[in-house]
Amino acid sequence: MDLQVEIMEQDEETAVLAAAGEVDAYTAPKLKEALLPLTKKENFLVKVDLKDVSYMDSTGLGVFISALKSTKENNSSMKLVHLQDRVLRLFEITGLIEIMDIEWGANG
Amino acid sequence: MDAIDIQEDSYKDLLKLYIDTEDEKALYGAEKISKSFIKQGITPEEIVNLHIQSLQEMYDDMPQAYLRGLDFLLETMISYGLALQEYQTLREKQLEIKSELKIAAGMQKTLLATTVPVVENLQIGVVSVAAHQMNGDYHHFITGKNGDIGIALADVRGKGIPAALCMSMIKYAMDSLPEDTMGPNKILKNLNRVVEKNVDPSMFITMFYAQYFPQTSKFLFSSAGHEPGFYYHGDTKNFEELKTKGLVLGVTSETDYPEYERTIKEGDMIVLLTDGVTECRYGDNFLSREEVLEVIQQHMHLPAQEMAEKVYKHFERLQNFHLRDDFTLIILKK
């Protein structure tokens, strides 16, 4: 299955990046290409909407880890929203949920 | 037809035979000849050229228009000839890489070799299989001075060569830790520092580390974001998920790993695994952890090693004998 990545909204201070599909070794570069540049702007907030991401593997987690490191270097921030259970579980097991700004469920 | 000589002459003969008789044997011969042409590196335009010459020898009265047409075909074939050469170079390079990989895989095997310790009253079963030539899973047993057993199980993000290189780093970092018995939380904290300094920002490692004390049956463990294992309580016949907190290795140096403790009683069992087991995908389906547990239950009456092998065989069959991810399963049974 493929992955679609699209910037839904963007202004001076924030952007919403929506991903849909599966994030794995083949599709993760696409996500990385869209996400990393947004984390390099100082004081910028990027929200990643994962509502339509049904599957993610460790390569996908790797993209978010490097994005998190980039936010720290560039004084920007990242928030992950609307995670499906299967994807959320990965962030829980790996302990990333403790250090990343994550909201899940329909109201997240 | 078997006696066909793979020379240009035989091409001419076969062509003539076919033109005169439409004999299928000639077509079969053409198929064989084309294979031998490929072997000898003869390019498509050379074959077209041979074809033109053969026709000219056979017929004096070839229409000019037809000959020009064949010349045109010859020109069109030139790029195919170049592509063929490129393909052959790539094939040679690929063979080279393959043999290098084979050597590297052998080295990794030697480097990561570990002996399953013999412990009184505790059976240990292990299966670890790489999806590709190099294994991104790592497991290691250490017997401490006081007879305590250290059990390390790790999984590097990704597969193949980068994962294997990273694994070697873990192995060296483990070897360089001080001999005196360090608890699981300290070991993970130390390794985290090494990994964090030395890996690419998108790389990380999950790791489970446990220490077992045979005299007291105490089992201490910590986890760095590793796939949770299972603890089977023999008295209540219940499986418990070994839930732990602790961040994967390599994300930030500022992190601590809580330590947990169980006392292994007679009839208890511990199942440790990597996500190659739980992320097992067959067709379009994912295996749920409940299903993994079912397979484990089906085989838990067996001795630990046999049980681990049977469970592996089950998942191998499920994925049509083609593993997508490295697979490691460790069973401890009392």
Question: For the CA atoms, what is the radius of gyration of chain A?
Answer: 12 Å
Strand content of chain B: 15-25%
Helix content of chain A: 25-40%
Strand order within the widest sheet of chain A?
A: 1-2-3-4-5
What is the rounded distance between the termini of chain B? Answer: 70 Å
Count of folded domains of chain A: 1
**What is the CATH superfamily of the largest domain in chain B?**
PPM-type phosphatase domain
CATH superfamily of chain A: STAS domain
Task: Report the total helices of chain B.
Answer: 9
CATH class of the largest domain in chain B: Alpha Beta
Query: What is the SS-derived class of chain A?
Result: alpha/beta
* Uncertain segments of chain B: 1-5
Query: Which word captures the global form of chain B?
Result: elongated
- Specify the overall morphology of chain A: globular
Strand order, sheet with most strands of chain B:
1-12-9-6-7
Protein name (chain A): Anti-sigma factor antagonist
Domain STAS (chain A): 4-108
InterPro entries (chain A): Anti-sigma_ant, STAS_dom, STAS_dom_sf
Function (chain A): Positive regulator of sigma-B activity. Non-phosphorylated RsbV binds to RsbW, preventing its association with sigma-B. When phosphorylated, releases RsbW, which is then free to complex with and inactivate sigma-B.
Give the tags:
heterodimer, A: 108 residues, alpha/beta, Transcription Regulator spoIIAA, 5-stranded mixed beta sheet, globular, B: 334 residues, alpha+beta, Methyltransferase, Methionine Synthase (B12-binding Domains), Chain A, domain 1, Phosphatase 2c, domain 1, 2 domains, 5-stranded antiparallel beta sheet, 20% strand
